[in-house]
Amino acid sequence: MRQDDRFIRIYTKGIATLNEVWVDRETGVNYLFHVSGYAGGLTPLLDKDGKPVVTDAYTLEHAYDR
Question: Rounded to two decimals, what is the model's pTM?
Fold first, then answer.
């Protein structure tokens, strides 16, 4: 795996105000990346119990062709 292949973008919406969901291929943890103008932030997505949302390896390989 190349070093820049660790994270994959699985969702994107917007132009000036941008929301993206990125997945860490090693851990499966999902992150929300939000940009508005010159400001931006990254945070893990959490489920209703406060635990990180994790995408399993099978889904990453088959659903996202990665």
Answer: 0.84
Query: Alpha carbon of 31 to those of 21, 61: distances in Å?
Result: 6, 18
Distance, CA of 13 to chain centre? 13
Residue 27 main-chain phi, psi, to 5 deg: -105, -20
Diameter of the chain by CA atoms?
A: 36
- Domain ranges in the chain are 3-63
pLDDT in tens, 19-61: 999 999 999 999 999 999 999 999 999 999 999 999 998 888 8
